[in-house]
Input
Amino acid sequence: MTSKIHIKKLSTVIATLLTLTVLPISPSHAFSPGAKPRTPKASCRIEIDNAHISRHAKKFGERRAVLVKARSICTVIQQQVTLTVNIYKVEKFGNPLLGAVSTDPLDPASFGKVVRNYDNLIDCKNFKRTKYYGVAYAKALINGRWNYAGRVRSPKTIEINCGT
Output
């Protein structure tokens, strides 16, 4: 009895597979001879870190400085990337921009799937507790078209012993 059930199920599966493989492709899914295949849309994002004291500047530059790092990450090659990082200080009556650094779009480091901007440093003048955050945005040439990434803010506003 169970072998009849197995044979019946097997024949149903085979009939279904044959039907699916013989069915024609609908015109909306077929390529016409003159049409170009669609290039996949680039999946890109900007990642930005929280403000922190730069260990590198402290160790090698003998100075204390606030740093905000950012990356433009894409699933395809980016060209001529201008990744800008702004550092802001939180004050009682507003948040002044302390510094803005952009990558050079003609620099070889501004090409590839990941482009980094780790150069935005603001020197500390004293050890006063101060709150900082960063904002990053980018422009890149991807698949022959200019793409713009909107402003991304640091996940947290961080208080650091670094008065400016």
